[in-house]
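Thread amino acids onto this structure.
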């Protein structure tokens, strides 16, 4: 039985929209308590959907950790009075904090920063991928698939406000950021491709700012590539900011080029790819791309056993996709914090 039906069966005069409104208010009380009680560890905690007990006239929701050591751990329950919407019972804050610190300290030990991560079919290194490309032989890369920083950060007004909100149905929503971080410094397309394109013997596929599409096409022609054109990643869940004043930006661009005669594995494939963007809770990198999208590009533009290179690896999605599909992949990430987070993601691929 749904929450709305439960409420209506216990209180027949309560309209459906009031039942939903009640749930939203109760969840807001829970969010407020968690945020105030654990200001520095809020991101590690979540609560379940509230359950209503007519006999107690109270709401109960479980509190648990979020994805620590690969699973969620219950740490207690909140009970909220059904009439006054006040907390009548809550977990011991000091006890939950101690449990959180224990869980966090027990997380898998991260690799040292001077140690490359090597697994079946892949090598992931901390460092400048453009410098790393210099050591590769010319025309040795079958597929260059990457997502370089292109300086499109622009902080949203809401970033200075509370970053968590509730959707209309009462579920959690973590506000995405418009300012991606210090790493998002624009890098000249011509500057970074100058040393990398001679290493490519097959396909070149890069995400880019929409304003950079023409520049990348010209660069490809200058390096004797066929400038195939633009691919579009259409997001099914774009950020709806300023939707009252302008169309929502629901797509990202990729520029594709190839050496003449390079094999293509598609058949009647459109150049628009529709995929959901990873939710903020799932990301280890602000601009992380969906794994199914990257897997599709690997399938279309390379064969098993081919060599894939990514000089701007970020969350290592290219590594996960290419290695999982039987390609050999080398990737670099320059930011130490992002690199260590990506190494944890790759732990399942090692061996």
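Threaded sequence (351 positions):
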């Amino acid at each position: 039985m749904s929450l709305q039906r439960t409420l209506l069966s216990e209180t027949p005069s309560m309209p459906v929209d009031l039942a939903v409104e009640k749930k939203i208010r109760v969840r807001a009380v829970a969010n407020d308590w968690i945020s105030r009680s654990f200001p520095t560890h809020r991101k590690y905690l979540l609560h379940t959907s509230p359950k209503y007990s007519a006999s107690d006239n109270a709401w109960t929701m479980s509190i648990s950790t979020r994805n620590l050591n690969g699973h969620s751990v219950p740490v207690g329950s909140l009970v909220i009075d059904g009439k006054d919407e006040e907390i009548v019972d809550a977990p011991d804050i000091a006890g939950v904090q101690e449990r959180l610190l224990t869980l966090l300290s027990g997380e898998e030990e991260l690799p040292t920063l001077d140690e490359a991560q090597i697994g079946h079919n892949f090598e992931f290194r901390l460092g400048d991928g453009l410098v790393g490309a210099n050591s590769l032989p010319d025309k040795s890369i079958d597929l260059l698939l990457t997502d370089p920083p292109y300086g499109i950060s622009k902080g949203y007004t809401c970033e200075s406000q509370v970053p968590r909100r509730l959707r209309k149905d009462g579920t959690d929503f973590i506000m995405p950021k418009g300012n991606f971080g210090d790493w998002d410094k624009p890098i000249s397309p011509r500057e970074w491709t100058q040393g990398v394109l001679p290493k490519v013997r097959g396909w070149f596929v890069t995400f880019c700012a929409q304003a950079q599409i023409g520049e990348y096409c010209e660069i490809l022609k200058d390096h004797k590539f066929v400038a195939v054109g633009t691919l579009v990643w259409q997001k099914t869940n774009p950020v709806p900011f300023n939707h009252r004043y302008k169309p929502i930006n629901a797509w990202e661009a990729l520029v594709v080029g190839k050496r003449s005669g390079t094999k293509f594995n598609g058949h009647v494939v459109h150049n628009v790819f529709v995929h959901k963007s990873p939710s903020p809770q799932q990301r280890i990198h602000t601009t992380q791309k969906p794994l199914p999208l990257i897997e599709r590009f690997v399938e279309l533009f390379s064969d098993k056993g081919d060599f894939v290179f990514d000089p701007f690896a970020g969350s290592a999605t290219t590594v996960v996709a290419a290695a999982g599909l039987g390609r050999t992949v080398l990737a670099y990430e320059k930011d130490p914090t992002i690199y260590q987070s990506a190494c944890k993601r790759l732990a399942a691929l090692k061996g």
